[in-house]
Amino acid sequence: MPMEIIQPLPTKDKGFSLKSLMQHRIFAWIFKILFAGVLFVVLYFQLFNREDLSIHTLSTEFVNNVTLQNFPFVLFVVLLMPLNWFFETRKWLSLMQNFHHIPFGYAFKAVLAGLTFSLFTPNRIGEYGGRLLMVEKDKRVLAVYATIVGSFSQWIVLVVGGWWGMMGAFYYGVIPIENLIFSILLGLGFIFSVVLFVLYFKLDVIIRLCIRFRFTRKWVSKLKRKAYYKHTKKQLLAALTFSFFRYLTYSSQYLLLLYFFGFEAGCCEIILGIMIVYLLQTGIPLPPSTGLLARGNIALLIFGYLSSSAIAPVAILASTFSLWIINVVSPAIVGAVVLLQRGWNCSKSSLIHPAPL
Protein backbone atom coordinates (compact mmCIF):
# COMPACT_ATOMS: atom_id res chain seq x y z
CA MET A 1 0.00 0.00 0.00
CA PRO A 2 1.68 3.27 -1.05
CA MET A 3 2.39 5.79 1.66
CA GLU A 4 0.50 9.07 1.58
CA ILE A 5 2.74 11.98 0.69
CA ILE A 6 2.24 14.94 2.98
CA GLN A 7 2.64 18.24 1.19
CA PRO A 8 5.18 20.67 2.63
CA LEU A 9 3.94 23.70 4.50
CA PRO A 10 3.12 26.55 2.09
CA THR A 11 5.61 29.38 1.96
CA LYS A 12 6.11 32.59 0.07
CA ASP A 13 9.31 34.31 -0.80
CA LYS A 14 9.01 36.25 2.43
CA GLY A 15 7.66 34.02 5.19
CA PHE A 16 4.57 31.83 5.47
CA SER A 17 1.27 32.31 3.68
CA LEU A 18 -1.30 32.34 6.49
CA LYS A 19 -4.26 31.71 4.18
CA SER A 20 -2.60 28.67 2.56
CA LEU A 21 -1.49 27.40 5.96
CA MET A 22 -5.09 27.45 7.27
CA GLN A 23 -6.16 25.34 4.27
CA HIS A 24 -3.35 22.84 4.76
CA ARG A 25 -4.20 19.25 5.76
CA ILE A 26 -2.13 19.43 8.93
CA PHE A 27 -3.99 22.51 10.10
CA ALA A 28 -7.31 20.80 9.26
CA TRP A 29 -6.46 17.85 11.49
CA ILE A 30 -5.29 20.13 14.31
CA PHE A 31 -8.57 22.03 14.04
CA LYS A 32 -10.58 18.78 14.14
CA ILE A 33 -8.79 17.55 17.25
CA LEU A 34 -9.09 20.87 19.08
CA PHE A 35 -12.73 21.30 18.11
CA ALA A 36 -13.66 17.80 19.24
CA GLY A 37 -11.74 18.30 22.51
CA VAL A 38 -13.43 21.60 23.32
CA LEU A 39 -16.85 20.18 22.50
CA PHE A 40 -16.19 17.16 24.75
CA VAL A 41 -15.06 19.34 27.66
CA VAL A 42 -18.06 21.69 27.37
CA LEU A 43 -20.55 18.83 27.21
CA TYR A 44 -18.83 17.01 30.08
CA PHE A 45 -19.12 19.96 32.45
CA GLN A 46 -22.71 20.62 31.42
CA LEU A 47 -23.82 17.00 31.65
CA PHE A 48 -21.71 15.45 34.42
CA ASN A 49 -20.40 18.29 36.58
CA ARG A 50 -23.51 20.23 37.55
CA GLU A 51 -24.58 21.09 41.07
CA ASP A 52 -28.25 21.93 40.42
CA LEU A 53 -29.11 18.79 38.44
CA SER A 54 -26.56 16.17 37.46
CA ILE A 55 -27.02 13.72 34.59
CA HIS A 56 -27.32 10.97 37.22
CA THR A 57 -30.20 12.75 38.96
CA LEU A 58 -31.84 13.45 35.62
CA SER A 59 -31.59 9.82 34.53
CA THR A 60 -33.02 8.71 37.89
CA GLU A 61 -35.95 11.09 37.52
CA PHE A 62 -36.47 9.91 33.96
CA VAL A 63 -36.59 6.23 34.95
CA ASN A 64 -38.93 6.98 37.85
CA ASN A 65 -41.39 8.75 35.56
CA VAL A 66 -41.37 6.28 32.69
CA THR A 67 -44.80 4.70 32.82
CA LEU A 68 -47.20 3.49 30.17
CA GLN A 69 -49.23 6.66 30.70
CA ASN A 70 -46.28 9.09 30.63
CA PHE A 71 -44.12 7.54 27.92
CA PRO A 72 -46.05 9.12 24.98
CA PHE A 73 -45.09 12.57 26.37
CA VAL A 74 -41.36 12.04 25.98
CA LEU A 75 -41.85 10.11 22.72
CA PHE A 76 -43.60 13.10 21.14
CA VAL A 77 -40.86 15.42 22.45
CA VAL A 78 -38.20 13.38 20.65
CA LEU A 79 -40.27 13.18 17.46
CA LEU A 80 -40.75 16.96 17.46
CA MET A 81 -37.01 17.65 17.63
CA PRO A 82 -36.28 17.20 13.89
CA LEU A 83 -39.45 19.18 13.12
CA ASN A 84 -38.00 22.09 15.10
CA TRP A 85 -34.86 22.22 12.93
CA PHE A 86 -36.89 21.46 9.79
CA PHE A 87 -38.74 24.75 10.27
CA GLU A 88 -35.44 26.57 10.92
CA THR A 89 -33.97 25.17 7.70
CA ARG A 90 -37.05 26.03 5.66
CA LYS A 91 -36.97 29.56 7.06
CA TRP A 92 -33.33 30.04 6.05
CA LEU A 93 -33.91 28.64 2.57
CA SER A 94 -36.96 30.86 2.06
CA LEU A 95 -34.79 33.92 2.71
CA MET A 96 -31.98 32.73 0.41
CA GLN A 97 -34.02 31.71 -2.61
CA ASN A 98 -33.46 35.04 -4.37
CA PHE A 99 -29.71 34.58 -4.76
CA HIS A 100 -28.62 31.02 -3.98
CA HIS A 101 -30.17 27.57 -4.29
CA ILE A 102 -29.07 24.97 -1.75
CA PRO A 103 -30.60 21.49 -1.55
CA PHE A 104 -32.61 21.01 1.60
CA GLY A 105 -30.42 18.17 2.89
CA TYR A 106 -27.24 20.25 2.67
CA ALA A 107 -28.97 23.26 4.20
CA PHE A 108 -30.19 21.08 7.08
CA LYS A 109 -26.60 19.95 7.75
CA ALA A 110 -25.45 23.58 7.60
CA VAL A 111 -28.05 24.57 10.21
CA LEU A 112 -26.87 21.77 12.52
CA ALA A 113 -23.24 22.76 11.95
CA GLY A 114 -24.12 26.33 12.89
CA LEU A 115 -25.84 25.03 16.01
CA THR A 116 -22.59 23.30 17.01
CA PHE A 117 -20.63 26.54 16.65
CA SER A 118 -23.31 28.43 18.57
CA LEU A 119 -22.66 26.32 21.70
CA PHE A 120 -19.56 28.42 22.31
CA THR A 121 -20.73 31.89 21.27
CA PRO A 122 -23.05 34.47 22.90
CA ASN A 123 -26.52 34.85 21.40
CA ARG A 124 -25.82 32.02 18.93
CA ILE A 125 -23.50 34.17 16.79
CA GLY A 126 -21.64 31.03 15.78
CA GLU A 127 -24.63 29.92 13.70
CA TYR A 128 -23.39 32.14 10.88
CA GLY A 129 -20.06 30.32 10.63
CA GLY A 130 -21.59 26.90 10.23
CA ARG A 131 -24.08 27.98 7.61
CA LEU A 132 -21.51 29.80 5.50
CA LEU A 133 -19.84 26.45 4.80
CA MET A 134 -22.62 25.74 2.31
CA VAL A 135 -22.50 29.09 0.49
CA GLU A 136 -20.28 30.33 -2.30
CA LYS A 137 -17.75 32.95 -1.30
CA ASP A 138 -19.29 35.78 -3.31
CA LYS A 139 -22.70 35.18 -1.71
CA ARG A 140 -21.64 34.97 1.94
CA VAL A 141 -22.62 38.54 2.75
CA LEU A 142 -26.13 37.82 1.51
CA ALA A 143 -26.21 34.54 3.42
CA VAL A 144 -25.27 36.36 6.63
CA TYR A 145 -28.00 38.90 5.92
CA ALA A 146 -30.55 36.11 5.36
CA THR A 147 -29.51 34.52 8.66
CA ILE A 148 -29.85 37.85 10.47
CA VAL A 149 -33.32 38.37 9.02
CA GLY A 150 -34.31 34.85 10.08
CA SER A 151 -32.98 35.45 13.59
CA PHE A 152 -34.86 38.75 13.73
CA SER A 153 -38.11 37.01 12.78
CA GLN A 154 -37.57 34.41 15.52
CA TRP A 155 -36.73 37.14 18.02
CA ILE A 156 -39.96 38.99 17.16
CA VAL A 157 -42.01 35.85 17.77
CA LEU A 158 -40.25 35.23 21.09
CA VAL A 159 -40.56 38.81 22.32
CA VAL A 160 -44.10 39.56 21.14
CA GLY A 161 -45.39 36.14 22.16
CA GLY A 162 -43.65 36.31 25.52
CA TRP A 163 -44.83 39.85 26.23
CA TRP A 164 -48.47 39.01 25.61
CA GLY A 165 -48.05 35.77 27.49
CA MET A 166 -46.89 37.84 30.43
CA MET A 167 -49.89 40.15 30.03
CA GLY A 168 -52.12 37.08 30.09
CA ALA A 169 -50.46 35.88 33.30
CA PHE A 170 -51.07 39.29 34.87
CA TYR A 171 -54.69 39.40 33.67
CA TYR A 172 -55.61 35.97 35.02
CA GLY A 173 -53.80 36.58 38.30
CA VAL A 174 -51.13 33.94 37.75
CA ILE A 175 -48.54 36.60 38.57
CA PRO A 176 -49.73 39.47 40.81
CA ILE A 177 -49.41 43.07 39.60
CA GLU A 178 -51.01 46.45 40.31
CA ASN A 179 -53.74 47.57 37.91
CA LEU A 180 -52.02 50.86 36.98
CA ILE A 181 -48.76 49.14 36.08
CA PHE A 182 -50.67 46.50 34.13
CA SER A 183 -52.46 49.18 32.09
CA ILE A 184 -49.18 50.94 31.30
CA LEU A 185 -47.55 47.65 30.22
CA LEU A 186 -50.51 46.88 27.98
CA GLY A 187 -50.13 50.18 26.15
CA LEU A 188 -46.35 49.86 25.85
CA GLY A 189 -46.68 46.30 24.61
CA PHE A 190 -49.12 47.28 21.88
CA ILE A 191 -46.88 50.11 20.65
CA PHE A 192 -43.73 47.98 20.82
CA SER A 193 -45.36 45.09 18.94
CA VAL A 194 -46.54 47.36 16.13
CA VAL A 195 -43.10 48.99 15.84
CA LEU A 196 -41.36 45.62 15.64
CA PHE A 197 -43.60 44.35 12.85
CA VAL A 198 -43.29 47.61 10.89
CA LEU A 199 -39.49 47.49 11.14
CA TYR A 200 -39.45 43.85 10.10
CA PHE A 201 -41.40 44.50 6.91
CA LYS A 202 -39.35 47.66 6.17
CA LEU A 203 -35.85 46.20 6.45
CA ASP A 204 -34.74 47.99 3.27
CA VAL A 205 -35.36 51.28 5.06
CA ILE A 206 -33.12 50.14 7.93
CA ILE A 207 -30.41 49.22 5.41
CA ARG A 208 -30.53 52.74 3.96
CA LEU A 209 -30.29 54.23 7.44
CA CYS A 210 -27.33 52.05 8.43
CA ILE A 211 -25.26 53.46 5.56
CA ARG A 212 -25.02 56.71 7.53
CA PHE A 213 -23.15 55.17 10.46
CA ARG A 214 -19.42 54.56 10.27
CA PHE A 215 -19.40 51.17 12.05
CA THR A 216 -22.05 49.69 9.69
CA ARG A 217 -21.22 51.59 6.49
CA LYS A 218 -18.65 49.12 5.12
CA TRP A 219 -20.82 46.02 5.61
CA VAL A 220 -23.98 47.71 4.33
CA SER A 221 -22.12 49.03 1.28
CA LYS A 222 -21.17 45.45 0.38
CA LEU A 223 -24.76 44.39 0.87
CA LYS A 224 -26.18 47.16 -1.29
CA ARG A 225 -23.86 46.22 -4.14
CA LYS A 226 -25.60 42.85 -4.28
CA ALA A 227 -28.66 42.71 -6.47
CA TYR A 228 -30.80 40.32 -4.44
CA TYR A 229 -30.64 41.40 -0.81
CA LYS A 230 -34.23 42.69 -0.79
CA HIS A 231 -36.88 40.27 0.39
CA THR A 232 -40.50 40.51 -0.68
CA LYS A 233 -43.24 40.83 1.93
CA LYS A 234 -44.33 37.32 0.99
CA GLN A 235 -40.87 35.95 1.80
CA LEU A 236 -40.70 37.86 5.08
CA LEU A 237 -44.14 36.61 6.03
CA ALA A 238 -43.08 33.04 5.20
CA ALA A 239 -40.01 33.39 7.44
CA LEU A 240 -42.17 34.78 10.24
CA THR A 241 -44.57 31.86 9.80
CA PHE A 242 -41.74 29.30 10.04
CA SER A 243 -40.49 31.11 13.16
CA PHE A 244 -43.95 30.86 14.70
CA PHE A 245 -44.17 27.13 13.99
CA ARG A 246 -40.72 26.65 15.50
CA TYR A 247 -41.87 28.53 18.58
CA LEU A 248 -45.00 26.38 18.75
CA THR A 249 -42.90 23.22 18.39
CA TYR A 250 -40.38 23.76 21.18
CA SER A 251 -43.04 25.27 23.46
CA SER A 252 -45.07 22.08 23.01
CA GLN A 253 -41.96 20.05 23.83
CA TYR A 254 -41.48 22.04 27.05
CA LEU A 255 -45.12 21.49 28.01
CA LEU A 256 -44.92 17.75 27.40
CA LEU A 257 -41.70 17.42 29.40
CA LEU A 258 -43.18 19.29 32.37
CA TYR A 259 -46.11 16.89 32.40
CA PHE A 260 -43.78 13.92 31.97
CA PHE A 261 -41.75 14.88 35.06
CA GLY A 262 -44.88 15.38 37.14
CA PHE A 263 -45.28 19.17 37.22
CA GLU A 264 -48.79 19.94 38.44
CA ALA A 265 -50.53 23.01 37.02
CA GLY A 266 -53.21 23.88 34.48
CA CYS A 267 -52.36 23.63 30.78
CA CYS A 268 -53.12 27.30 30.04
CA GLU A 269 -51.08 28.46 33.04
CA ILE A 270 -48.09 26.36 31.96
CA ILE A 271 -48.29 27.71 28.40
CA LEU A 272 -48.27 31.29 29.70
CA GLY A 273 -45.32 30.42 31.94
CA ILE A 274 -43.40 28.91 29.01
CA MET A 275 -43.96 32.05 26.93
CA ILE A 276 -42.62 34.23 29.75
CA VAL A 277 -39.61 31.96 30.31
CA TYR A 278 -38.64 32.19 26.64
CA LEU A 279 -39.10 35.96 26.73
CA LEU A 280 -36.71 36.34 29.66
CA GLN A 281 -34.23 33.87 28.21
CA THR A 282 -33.81 35.98 25.09
CA GLY A 283 -32.16 38.63 27.25
CA ILE A 284 -29.37 36.32 28.42
CA PRO A 285 -26.26 37.03 26.26
CA LEU A 286 -24.64 33.69 27.09
CA PRO A 287 -23.77 30.70 24.91
CA PRO A 288 -26.23 27.81 25.18
CA SER A 289 -23.45 25.69 26.70
CA THR A 290 -22.87 28.03 29.66
CA GLY A 291 -26.21 29.79 30.06
CA LEU A 292 -28.19 26.70 31.02
CA LEU A 293 -27.93 27.43 34.76
CA ALA A 294 -29.31 30.95 34.27
CA ARG A 295 -32.12 29.60 32.12
CA GLY A 296 -32.94 27.02 34.78
CA ASN A 297 -33.14 29.72 37.43
CA ILE A 298 -35.52 31.75 35.25
CA ALA A 299 -37.73 28.70 34.82
CA LEU A 300 -37.73 28.11 38.58
CA LEU A 301 -38.72 31.73 39.18
CA ILE A 302 -41.63 31.79 36.72
CA PHE A 303 -43.00 28.30 37.25
CA GLY A 304 -42.70 28.82 40.99
CA TYR A 305 -45.82 30.98 40.72
CA LEU A 306 -47.74 28.04 39.26
CA SER A 307 -46.99 25.24 41.71
CA SER A 308 -45.80 24.96 45.30
CA SER A 309 -45.40 21.19 45.14
CA ALA A 310 -42.29 19.70 46.73
CA ILE A 311 -41.33 18.00 43.47
CA ALA A 312 -41.91 21.11 41.34
CA PRO A 313 -38.28 22.41 41.39
CA VAL A 314 -36.88 19.04 40.30
CA ALA A 315 -39.54 18.71 37.59
CA ILE A 316 -38.79 22.22 36.30
CA LEU A 317 -35.02 21.71 36.16
CA ALA A 318 -35.37 18.21 34.71
CA SER A 319 -37.67 19.53 31.96
CA THR A 320 -35.36 22.46 31.15
CA PHE A 321 -32.27 20.26 31.12
CA SER A 322 -33.94 17.50 29.07
CA LEU A 323 -35.18 19.99 26.47
CA TRP A 324 -31.62 21.34 26.16
CA ILE A 325 -30.23 17.83 25.62
CA ILE A 326 -32.88 16.91 23.04
CA ASN A 327 -33.06 20.17 21.09
CA VAL A 328 -29.49 21.46 21.38
CA VAL A 329 -26.96 18.82 22.42
CA SER A 330 -28.21 15.95 20.22
CA PRO A 331 -28.41 17.92 16.94
CA ALA A 332 -25.17 19.76 17.84
CA ILE A 333 -23.36 16.42 18.03
CA VAL A 334 -24.67 15.61 14.56
CA GLY A 335 -23.49 19.05 13.44
CA ALA A 336 -20.06 18.32 14.90
CA VAL A 337 -19.86 15.14 12.83
CA VAL A 338 -20.74 17.20 9.74
CA LEU A 339 -17.99 19.71 10.54
CA LEU A 340 -15.37 17.07 11.28
CA GLN A 341 -16.13 15.19 8.07
CA ARG A 342 -16.02 18.36 5.99
CA GLY A 343 -12.84 19.53 7.70
CA TRP A 344 -11.47 22.99 7.15
CA ASN A 345 -11.60 22.86 3.35
CA CYS A 346 -13.94 25.65 2.25
CA SER A 347 -12.88 25.91 -1.37
CA LYS A 348 -15.39 27.12 -3.90
CA SER A 349 -15.86 23.71 -5.43
CA SER A 350 -16.63 22.07 -2.11
CA LEU A 351 -19.15 24.74 -1.28
CA ILE A 352 -21.05 24.34 -4.53
CA HIS A 353 -20.99 20.54 -4.35
CA PRO A 354 -20.77 19.61 -0.67
CA ALA A 355 -19.35 16.22 0.13
CA PRO A 356 -22.08 13.75 1.08
CA LEU A 357 -22.04 12.19 4.52
Task: Explain how this protein is built.
This protein is mostly helical. The chain has one domain (25-352). It has helices spanning 18-22, 25-48, 55-65, 71-96, 104-118, 127-132, 140-171, 179-200, 203-210, 214-225, 233-260, 267-281, 292-303, 312-342, 348-352, and strands at residues 11-12, 15-16. A hairpin with a 2-residue loop joins β1 (11-12) and β2. The longest helix is centred in the middle third of the chain and has 32 residues, at 140-171.
Please provide a brief summary of the model.
The protein is mainly α and 357 residues long.
Summary keywords:
mainly alpha, 1% strand, two-stranded antiparallel ribbon, 15 helices
Give a count of the beta strands, DSSP E runs of length 2 or more. 2
Main β-sheet, spatial strand arrangement: 1-2
Q: Which radius of gyration do the C-alpha atoms yield? A: 23 Å
Largest sheet: 2 strands, antiparallel
Number of helices: 15
Counting structural domains, the number is 1
Mean pLDDT: 78
Poorly predicted regions are 11-19, 344-357
Series of H and E elements? EEHHHHHHHHHHHHHHH
The portion of residues forming beta strands comes to under 5%
Helix percent band: over 70%
